[in-house]
Structure formats: structure tokens, C-alpha cells
Design brief:
Elements (H helix, E strand, L loop, with lengths): L1 H4 L4 H17 L6 H8 L12 E11 L2 E10 L5 H6 L10 E7 L1 E2 L3 E3 L5 E3 L1
Antiparallel strand pairs: 1-2, 2-3, 3-4, 3-5, 5-6
Helix pairs in contact: 2-3
Protein name: S-Me-THD-like C-terminal domain-containing protein
Pfam families: S-Me-THD_C
InterPro entries: S-Me-THD-like_C, S-Me-THD_C_sf
Length: 121
């Protein structure tokens, strides 16, 4: 019955993502859990890390059966996985704030600039 209704390969993909997160926790590598998830889902050709940070605000409303809103994420002072690969210790690329508008799902990632303008990431 499940085979009739489930999207092919999504159960095994969910299992691989969960395994990667569990390994990252066990090995105390939670700063790089996003990279672990990308590796489990097909590597750099499947996705990339846009931002790392802390959720500082969420607004949502229900309208016409849809959840609309936005999530604000402030950049965290973390080292990017690519820094570790290159062996550098440069400053974090995750500085500032981003906004993720959504309608049931994430629609876009917008970087909030100091001058008040938004730029698509």
C-alpha cells in the first residue's frame, strides 16, 4: 500500500538524512550538520549551504488554508565547512540577517542589507 502513495526513494532519503544527523550529534559535529545532510542527499550538485545562524523571528498567518509568513535568521559566528577543507580560519561568511518568506514551503532566501534593501540569495 505504501508503494502506491509514497514518492519513490523519499523514505530511504529520509533515513539517510536522519542517519547523517545522528552521526553528527554523536561525533559532536553539529556545526557541520548541513554539509552532512547535503553529502547524504547527493553532494554539492544536490544543494549548498546558503546561511548558518540563529532564528530570531517568525511571523505566520493562516489564510485560505495556507500558512503564510517569514522567518528571520541572524548569521552565526561559525566556520564554514569549506574553510576546514582549505585549512583557513577567515571570518564567517554568515554575517547579517536573512529573511525566508514562505507559503506552506520556503519560497526564497533574501539577504537584508544595511541600507534596508533585500537581495535574493
Amino acid at each position: 500500500e505504501t508503494k502506491r502513495w509514497v514518492v519513490e526513494h523519499t523514505i530511504s532519503q529520509a533515513w539517510r538524512i536522519g542517519r547523517g544527523v545522528a552521526r553528527a550529534r554523536r561525533e559532536n559535529r553539529v556545526d557541520n550538520v548541513a554539509e552532512t545532510i547535503i553529502d547524504e542527499c547527493g553532494g554539492p550538485s544536490a544543494g549548498k549551504v546558503l546561511w548558518k545562524g540563529k532564528i530570531v523571528g517568525v511571523e505566520r498567518m493562516l489564510r485560505g488554508g495556507y500558512a503564510y509568513g517569514e522567518c528571520l535568521i541572524e548569521g552565526a559566528d561559525v566556520r564554514d565547512h569549506s574553510d576546514a577543507v582549505r585549512g583557513t580560519t577567515r571570518g564567517s561568511p554568515f554575517q547579517g540577517t536573512i529573511k525566508v518568506p514562505f507559503k506552506n514551503e520556503n519560497i526564497a532566501v533574501l539577504r537584508l542589507r544595511d541600507d534596508g534593501k533585500q537581495e535574493l540569495q
